[in-house]
Amino acid sequence: MKLTRIALALAALALAAGARTASAQQAAQARTPPRMLHPAAGKEQCLTCHGPGVNAHIKSTPAAHQFGNEACAMCHRPIETAPPRAVHAFGAAFTNCRMCHVANSPAGAKAPPASHAEFHVSICATCHQPAQGS
């Protein structure tokens, strides 16, 4: 009986320690600013697109961010790998990406990943570059 109580007490302590560790990890992640979803090079004027009310299809800076363009890259790091290039040009015939890029596309185009669900079709070229030589 005494061994059972000791085992239960040890198990409770282990669970509590695990919960504290998970809580600390969550707190650290909450303090880590999200990465930029696009390459930073050539896009140093962040507020041109991300300023409050500038573009309804692009996430604006939070109200607590009253910083100039040069401050963004101090906290927000660019993505580690560039998004894949398109296999076609971005000319007039390719302005509505989701015309072809849908699930089970008859054109064989890849559907955007679930992480792109909130992105408007007008900003695809912000991250994805046209095929080389296009």
Features:
mainly alpha, 4 helices, 134 residues, 3 domains
Write the layout of secondary structure elements.
Layout (H helix, E strand, L loop, with lengths): L1 H30 L15 H4 L18 H7 L48 H4 L7
Describe the structure.
This protein is mostly helical and 134 residues long. It has three domains: 1-32; 34-79, no CATH class; 83-134, no CATH class. 34% of the residues lie in helices and 0% in strands. The chain has helices at residues 2-31, 47-50, 69-75, 124-127. The longest helix is centred in the first third of the chain and has 30 residues, at 2-31. It is extended, with a radius of gyration of 23 Å. The chain starts with a helix and ends in a 7-residue tail after the last helix.
- What characteristic shape results from the CA principal axes? extended
Major β-sheet, in short?
A: none
- Rounded mean pLDDT score: 81
| Estimated share of beta-strand residues | under 5%
Low-pLDDT regions: none
Total number of domains = 3
Q: Report how far the terminal alpha carbons are from each other.
A: 77 Å
The topology string of helices and strands comes to HHHH
Counting DSSP E segments of at least 2 residues, the number of strands comes to 0
Radius of gyration: 23 Å
Number of helices: 4
Percent helix, as a range, is: 25-40%
Q: Label the structural class.
A: mainly alpha
Summed up, what is this model?
With 134 residues, this protein is mainly alpha-helical. The chain is 34% helix and 0% strand.
